[in-house]
Amino acid sequence: MNQRELHHGHDEAASAGAVVSGTTIRLTTAQALVRYLAAQRVATEDGLGTEPLFGGVFAIFGHGNVAGMGEALYQHRDELPTLRAHNEQAMAHSAIAYAKAHFRRRMMAVTTSIGPGATNLLTAAALAHVNRLPVLLLPGDIFVSRAPDPVLQQVEDSHDGGVSANDAFKPVSRYFDRIMHPAQLLSALPRALRVLTDAASCGPVTLALPQDVQAQAWDFPADFFAPRIVTFYAPAPRVDEIDAAVARLQRAKRPLIVAGGGVLYGRATDALQRFAAAHGIPVAETQAGKSSLAWDDPLNAGSLGVTGSPAANALARDADCVLALGTRLQDFTTGSNTLFTQADVIGINANAFDALKHRAQVVEADARLALDALAERLQDWQADRAWTSRAHELAASWRDAVHTLTHAPQRESVLPYEGDVIGAVQRSSTDSPANDIVVCAAGTLPGELHKLWRAGTPGAYHVEYGYSCMGYEIAGGLGVKLARPEREVIVMVGDGSYLMMNSEIATSVMLGAKLIVVVLDNRGYGCINRLQQACGGAPFNNLLEDSMQGPLGAPQIDFAAHARALGARAEHVANVAELEAALQRARSADRTYVISIDTDPARTTSDGGWWWEVAVPEVSPRASVREARANYDAQISARGKPPASAENSGDGSNSNDQAND
Q1: How far is the C-alpha of 33 from the C-alpha of 230, rounded, in Å?
Q2: At what angle do helices 367-377 and 239-251 cross, to 10 degrees?
Q3: I need a labelling partner for 618 at 20 to 30 A (CA). Which of 21, 57, 277, 331 fits?
Q4: Which residues belong to any copy of the Thiamine pyrophosphate enzyme central domain (predicted)?
Q5: CA neighbours closer than 13 Å in the CB half-sphere of residue 154
């Protein structure tokens, strides 16, 4: 830090109420933390300038953070905006979605009080951990001094006096620390920042903040708060691992690329398109990886796995080599490890733990750097021409099928299903549909969107499915809109998820972050109702009509009226034609607009799909359960055996399309 910068820093510190002495600044722990976050910068997407790494801090204040963190955030509210929310879990979802929409290049922090305010963050922390997404969690904690012991909302442990409720964050954080003295920030904050910006270790960071330590002052080095341009860390491939991958690919005649979220986060979409086209390799997309390749690219075979297209699943079933690019190969992608058991797998991932799945040959590397290294070595190598030709035909056939499915004629006597609604949403775009970003998370919709949504640009598909967290949808949509205010953000949500978490509709109105929310009302948990019956169970406790009821019966819920009560514009529509008209009104509205429509809880897209392992009871008095168990046992016995031809078995005939949750 030069003298001019130091002098400027002194002026800033003085204006913020800090005490400056020589080359130190006397700040509270909370003030130092906030000041450090505000100083972090990141290069803009065009590379021509910089912008804050942290887009802001979501805060719900309580006795554990209002005095310390609240005062610090107030002092720095111009350079680090504070956003008020209505639910702690929801605001963390918004922060996570913000980071995902920025492909992990920008992020947000979240602060809560102790007790329920803190533990409400746990579900969101697990979601960020599973999805490898950065978020900085700053829950208040109990007094280090133990003077007011036990403090309000303190969870006591009779065996360990040092435990607080925040210890529950340890298994769902990529880095955890409890700040017991202000000086700890000098090591804790750089460590936290490294985790948040490291492709291999990226995920939630929790810094628990005891409320007395938040208010404690210390003389911090002034240069600790100098503005810094953050570097993002991603490993380059090792030569020996690239050699091994090249050898495997050169033996392959029928390769398939599985594109995961790492393609988007590594900004490898252009490299993927070039690599696939140069070598004639078809691409299938995971939930996190969808939009890695434009929907109409001739080598995009569509979604893979349990919610996969018939094209992608047929190719996966016959592939002799699978290049798993930036994916952790969870069970929906692999059909519970039944879909490409015959293939050699090359796992390319910044995190070796994720790359090791499915007995893969590991290339521990950033997706773009690995693709560039492979391309340099494989310049003259091509997949078998018949294989590439087949991939083109299957992909084209599936694109035609998607158009048919989303443009099906509507009958007045039949309720629409998710595919009909998806088609209406995409047809409603007055601009290029590629400008829309769809947001979703759980239930039937992710399976239908994975198959049917046409994502034309990277990030146009934002579905949280690693944790399949009901309630993420509206809060996530808010985070996406804050990250991409120039884009139309379409939240598609079932009635079950809407009822679980909808309060951030009010936040979106307050912040002027307009969303279009389409509520598909199938009167219950339709997805799990179908799965329950697919496993031989009777319809029970999922749809409202099959649940225990009092004398008044199941409620008739007016979602439009509820959304209006939260400050949004809203209406209920009777059919798909009315939905398309309402969507035009929503697109021109000045605030969040909610549209509800009744849908069929039983219908799904029958094309595609694959088996998903859900354990069925081994004994039951019910014949339907015993039959489902026999089918389950047959699938388990077939696992690992040589596959039949994909032309016969890869068309979804053995799929369980009820298993879309």
Answers
A1: 16
A2: 60
A3: 331
A4: 242-374
A5: 19
Dihedral, CA of residue 416, residue 419, residue 422 and residue 423, to nearest 10: -90
For residue 587, the one-letter residue type is R
Number of neighbours of residue 399 by Cβ within 10 angstroms: 20
Output the six-digit token pair for 623: 């014949």
Of 330, 319, 328, 334, whose CA–CA distance to 349 is shortest?
328
Tokens linked to 620: 């039951």
Amino acid (1-letter code) at residue 512: G
What is the chain's mean pLDDT, rounded? Answer: 93
Question: What is the tens place of the pLDDT at every residue in 359-417?
Answer: 899 999 999 999 999 999 999 999 999 999 999 999 999 999 999 999 999 988 899 99
- Taking the CA atoms of 166, 167, 171 and 176 in sequence, report the sign of the dihedral they define: positive
Could you give the C-alpha distances from 610 to 89, 154, 245, 427, 461, in angstroms and in order? 33, 47, 28, 28, 22
DSSP 295: T
d(CA 199, CA 132): 8
Cβ atoms of 447 and 307 within 8 Å: the answer is yes
Residue 328: which region, alpha, beta or left (left: phi > 0; alpha: psi -120 to 50)?
Answer: alpha
* Per-residue tokens: 257: 């690329």
Q: Give CA–CA dist 331/614, Å, rounded.
A: 11
- Phi/psi for 423 (5° steps) reads -60, -40
- The two three-digit tokens of residue 322, written as one number: 């699978």
Residue 300 DSSP SS3? strand
Asked if CATH classification 3.30.450.40 holds for the domain at 239-396, the reply, yes or no, is no
Q: Which of 217, 214, 229 is nearest to 25 (CA)?
A: 217
Beta-strand runs (E) in 223-265: 228-229, 255-259
Statement: the pTM of the whole predicted model exceeds 0.90: yes
CB 350 within 8 A of CB 199: yes
Read off the pLDDT of residues 373-386 as tens digits, 9 standing for 90 and up. Answer: 999 999 999 999 99
Per-residue H/E/C for 570-626: EEEECCHHHHHHHHHHHHCCCCCEEEEEECCCCCCCCCCCCCCCCCCCCCCCCHHHH
Closest CA to 458 of 631, 326, 647, 558: 326
Q: Element (H or E) spanning 97, and its range?
A: helix 88-101
Residues belonging to the chain? 661
Residue keyed to tokens 């297209």: 309
Three-state DSSP at 381 gives coil
Q: Quick one: residue 567, left, alpha or beta (phi over 0 = left, psi -120 to 50 = alpha)?
A: left
Domain boundaries, the chain: 3-229, 239-396, 416-543+552-598
* 359 close to 269: Cβ distance less than 8 angstroms: no
Q: Hunting for tokens 């005062």 — which residue is that?
A: 71
Instruction: Give 553-574 pLDDT, tens digit per residue.
Output: 999 999 999 999 999 999 999 9
CA quadruple 340, 344, 348, 354: dihedral sign: positive
Cβ-in-10-Å burial (0-12, 13-18, 19+) of 15 comes to exposed
Homologous superfamily of domain range 416-543+552-598: Thiamin diphosphate (ThDP)-binding fold, Pyr/PP domains (3.40.50.970)
Structure-token match 């979601």, residue found: 127
Phi/psi of residue 457, each to 5°?
A: -135, 155
319-337 CB burial, b ≥16 within 10 A, e <16: bbbbbbbbbbbbebbbbbb
What distance, in Å, lies between the first and last C-alpha atoms of the chain?
53
Q: Which of 100, 64, 63, 95 is nearest to 82 (CA)?
A: 95
- How far is residue 186's CA from residue 39's CA, in Å, rounded to a whole number? 14
Q: What class is the 3-229 domain?
A: alpha beta
